[in-house]
Specification:
It is built from 14 helices and three strands. It has 404 residues and is mainly alpha-helical. The protein has a three-stranded antiparallel sheet with strand order 1-2-3. Helix 1 packs antiparallel against helix 2. Its main location: cytoplasm. It comes from Caballeronia sordidicola (Burkholderia sordidicola).
């Protein structure tokens, strides 16, 4: 009697959630799938990690990023997706995957099927929610490339750690680096006007409505005028604001933030931004301006608690703002349909691109836009070039306005 063909067997459903899948932190794999006897396990040399199965090996890799939340969550997501796909669809341990398997996985990312097993029906569900799934939908070409880059890093590290014998992704064709395309994920001036109009139209009858309006207005002003990433808005505090006297003797406000890669950068806090900050703080009964190193988060939850909001919480607020802006569009017909699609595609990161695009439209020097957005690290020497910083502040002040 011939053995069954794995390709025609029903996929393995892991115990736990309704989908038959479980997040990696709640995942227990059977011995034939946990990687203890994976075909690509290193058989020679002394392993540099204690992990003896694929889940523990991935966790050892992720532990290196535990202090960088956004990076950790992004890397965990990609490793988790591959691990679940490997064990559920192929019925193979991750440490048995071949180059051909990973080519199949790359095609799977274009349209994860069956959708009822792999794709969430609602956005931003908790990882403990019974309706949790590894995917929110098909991945764009850029997201698929990013997934492969992350997984290549995982496999390379596991090889260096003496856990795997080889990296199956190292055989992938190396494409010549192409010039990055022009940014198109931003709001043009008409869509931006609709966003501002929707915030002005928010109800402000009850105390909760007034507090929510104050928070939304401040969050949008903060992200647009400073160009902050959403993770930076969640992680930094109002104590980052401070004043410094410029060459003319005028005291100018700045915002010091710690951002991507734990790099610190200095942002011009324009008069508009400081005015919006004051407006927001007075709503909470705080002093008009923060004191240096004050621990108050940049954005507060409703109810007056002095704890930071999560990135996911800030994302939901922004998405609702964009949805509300649909009702403020002054156009009809095909142009309206296009604008609605753009607003519903938009995310918090679009505000950062919008800030950069609008600064360029207003002829703000490219060097200053680069430094404001933190696209390149600031060298140690630049900390002493206050004259250049003052020019950047003045250029940003005159050329980048909210004009509420």
């Amino acid at each position: 009697m011939s053995s069954p063909d794995p390709a025609h067997e029903p996929p393995l459903l892991l115990p736990g959630l309704a989908s038959g899948l479980a997040p990696i932190d709640a995942l227990t794999l059977p011995s034939d799938l946990n990687g203890q006897h994976g075909l690509n396990r290193a058989r020679q040399g002394i392993p540099q990690i204690a992990a003896d199965n694929d889940v523990d090996a991935i966790k050892a890799w992720l532990a290196r990023y535990a202090d960088r939340r956004a990076t950790f969550e992004s890397y965990r997501k990609e490793a988790e997706r591959l691990l679940l796909w490997s064990t559920v669809e192929l019925r193979k341990p991750l440490s048995s995957l071949t180059h051909e398997d990973l080519l199949t996985y790359a095609r799977f990312l274009e349209d994860p099927q069956p959708a009822q097993r792999w794709v969430m029906h609602a956005r931003k569900l908790s990882r403990s929610d019974p309706l949790w799934r590894p995917f929110a939908g098909p991945l764009s070409a850029a997201s698929r490339r990013q997934a492969v880059i992350i997984l290549n890093g995982l496999f390379s590290w596991l090889v260096n750690a003496g856990y795997l014998a080889g990296n199956p992704l190292s055989l992938s064709r190396q494409r010549r680096r192409r010039e990055k395309p022009q940014i198109d994920r931003y709001l043009d001036h008409d869509l931006w006007a609709s966003v501002k109009a929707s915030i002005d139209a928010m109800p402000c009858v009850t105390p909760r409505e007034r507090e929510h309006h104050a928070r939304v207005r401040w969050l949008i002003a903060l992200l647009y005028l400073s160009g902050l990433r959403i993770s930076e808005a969640a992680a930094n505090t109002m104590g980052g604001f401070f004043t410094r006297v410029d060459r003319s003797g005028e005291a100018r406000w700045w915002l010091r933030v710690t951002g991507k890669g734990d790099k610190e950068r200095l942002l011009p806090a324009t008069r508009e931004l400081v005015a919006e900050l004051t407006r927001y703080r007075l709503h909470y009964g705080l002093s008009a301006l923060p004191y240096r190193d004050e621990a108050t988060p940049l954005v507060l939850p409703i109810g007056g608690q002095r704890r930071p909001l999560t990135r996911a919480g800030l994302h939901l607020i922004i998405k609702q703002v964009f949805e509300n802006a649909v009702g403020q569009l002054p156009i009809e017909g095909e142009a309206r349909e296009h604008a609605v699609r753009r607003l519903r595609q938009a995310s918090a990161h679009w505000l950062r691109h919008t800030a950069g695009s609008h600064m360029m439209d207003q002829q703000v020097d490219l060097r200053y836009v680069r430094d404001n957005l933190g696209h390149e690290s600031i060298s140690t020497t630049s900390r002493y070039l206050h004259a250049e910083d003052d020019d950047r502040h003045q250029a940003t002040e005159s050329g980048h306005k909210l004009n509420w």
